[in-house]
Design brief:
The chain has helices spanning 11-21, 67-76, 90-97, 115-127, 150-160, 224-234, 245-253; strands spanning 2-6, 27-32, 40-41, 44-45, 57-60, 80-83, 107-109, 133-140, 181-183, 186-192, 198-206, 209-217, 240-242. The protein is of the alpha/beta class and 255 residues long. It folds into two domains: 2-113 and 220-253, Rossmann fold, CATH 3.40.50; 115-217, Dihydrodipicolinate Reductase, domain 2. It has a six-stranded parallel β-sheet with strand order 2-1-5-6-7-13, sandwiched between helices. α2 links the parallel β5 (57-60) and β6 (80-83). α1 (11-21) crosses α6. It is globular and about 55 Å long. The chain starts with a strand and ends with a helix. The relative contact order is 0.17.
Length: 255
């Protein structure tokens, strides 16, 4: 399969490009990064023109501010797309679905390519109905362009299906924002710290017990395995899907 990466000069895009080039079943045929034409990544030249990109599948890792326009272009070119760009709120997902139809080629939104992070989200959704209190604390590097993280947003939306937003009302803040932001009825706290990569804790409690699910990525290499899994899976679906859960199940059945 011919695969290209958008945002190929970024830290996520470049590590995924190298991961693709190291496989036998995938061929890295494009690297799109405006302003970087003439440079190379994973052994191929970088293009700054969308028209030059030749691929069946695009892995989109561009900045949240430009990603939607990129997606419209890849959709028009008939590409399947794996979205690794962060910040896909419920509103942004609806915007995507306004031009990406249910019967169109596959488009997979992946809030986090780390296998451990995917399992963390799944376990948090499973636990959500059984605890009175639930909050999310996510930590990322101080240069991250969005808050909360895409992983935190996706986790909260999955947990929120089993919780009441009315339970989360809080009028005790002395400093606005001290209690975090509300996403689907879940309090989310975003920490931006030098030296961090990706770290998230989902904290639960009942009277007399505390339960915590915690995941950390310490290297961008942690995202490669999940990205390759997403690339193999996206060709099998139609329309927009969210998360790697179904891809994990698909992979397990085909091992």
């Amino acid at each position: 399969m011919k695969v290209a990466v958008s945002g190929a000069m970024g830290r996520l895009g470049s590590v995924i490009a190298h991961g693709i080039s190291n496989t036998n079943e995938l061929q890295l045929t494009g690297a799109y990064a405006p302003g970087h034409a003439g440079k190379t990544v994973a052994g191929i030249a970088v293009d700054d023109s969308q028209e030059k990109v030749d691929a069946q599948i695009m892995v989109e890792c561009a900045h949240p501010g430009v990603v939607m326009e990129n997606l419209k272009k890849w959709h028009a070119k008939g590409m399947c797309v794996v979205i690794g760009t962060s910040g896909f709120t419920a509103d942004r997902i609806e915007e995507l679905k306004s031009f990406w139809g249910e019967d169109d080629q596959g488009c997979l939104i992946v809030p986090n390519f780390s296998i451990g992070a995917v399992l963390m989200m799944r376990f948090a959704e499973m636990a959500s109905p059984y605890f009175d209190s639930a909050e999310i604390i996510e930590r990322h590097e101080d240069t991250k362009p969005d808050a909360p993280s895409g992983t935190a947003l996706a986790t909260a939306m999955r947990m929120g299906k089993y919780r009441s937003s009315a339970e989360q009302k809080d009028n005790t803040e002395v400093v606005k924002g001290a209690r975090g932001g509300l996403v689907s009825g879940i309090r989310v706290h975003s920490l931006r710290m030098k030296g961090m990569l990706s770290d998230q804790e989902v904290a639960f409690s009942n009277k007399g017990e505390i339960f915590s699910i915690h995941h950390s990525s310490t290297s961008y290499e942690s995202f490669v395995k999940g990205a390759l899994l997403a690339i193999r899976y996206v060709k099998t679906i139609k329309g927009v899907e969210i998360g790697l859960d179904a891809a994990l199940d698909f992979e397990a059945k085909n091992i």
